[in-house]
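Internal tracking record. Fields below are filled automatically when a chain is submitted to the structure queue. Please do not edit lines marked as system-generated. If the sequence contains nonstandard residues, flag them in the REMARKS field before resubmitting.
Queue: standard
Priority: normal
Entity type: single polypeptide chain
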Amino acid sequence: MGVAAHYGDPMREQRLLDAGGALVDLSHHGVVRICGPDRLTWLHSLLSQDVASLAPGVPVQGLLLSPHGHVEHHLRLQDDGETTTALVEPGSGPALVEFLRSMQFMMRVEVVDATENWAVIGSADSEQVVPRADLQPVMADADSVAGVWAHEALRIAAGIPRLGLDTDHRTIPNEAGWIESAVHLDKGCYRGQETVARVHTLGRPPRRLTRLHLDGSVDHLPEHGDPVVLRETAKQVGLIGSSTRHYVDGPLALALLKRSVPVDAPLLVQSEGVGVAATQEVVVEPEAGLHVRP
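SYSTEM-GENERATED OUTPUT FOLLOWS
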């Protein structure tokens, strides 16, 4: 989508990025800006995160959920005292703006898709926006640069999901490990809260995000949507989201598995007609939640 996958040496770029010494062009991601005196209290009423008193310069994550608790948008937010900037998945800015504008009513806010004017730049553990006209000079002045492949490899190794890649239209925050990072459990009502609270209280989300360590004997990585099956019975128990070759851990993938799958069950990923052996590393516990036992 107009950004560099790599600059000639993806593994070296991973090492540089992991050490904090490289920048990544993420300008294909969307940028939505919300201004106006009511912006924080208004966003607070809509999102899963507590942003009513968000301090300038403090980055947070938030989710916009459907009435049934399914994740529709994942926002990486930061406020500067006058404007809240939301970084979103590539291509999702217009839909988010359309929804937010439909919820303005009498609130003193203004919502714009600013992707044409602002570009996202990433590092090992943060993201920032710069005027799009300054993107190339900033990247040219960096000590080192890394491609999107390197950025994705570190994300997958850290077990961090991306909306639309490691989730589907049925995903709830509890399944993807977003409770700790993007949900405030005591903030009060917001759309979809009932589902989140119920699963957090009673536990057992229908599925769970897991990191898979893949057999490196094949020459390709699994594709998004490839089925994951139990090795002994060939019963399908999940789907592949993202996959990568990590500079330390080798071939990795994120997958959504049925909660009932034992965490030590040997798995196969069905990819290009070949069963690729996979072992699990837990990201979301099968009993996630379960804070009230019957």
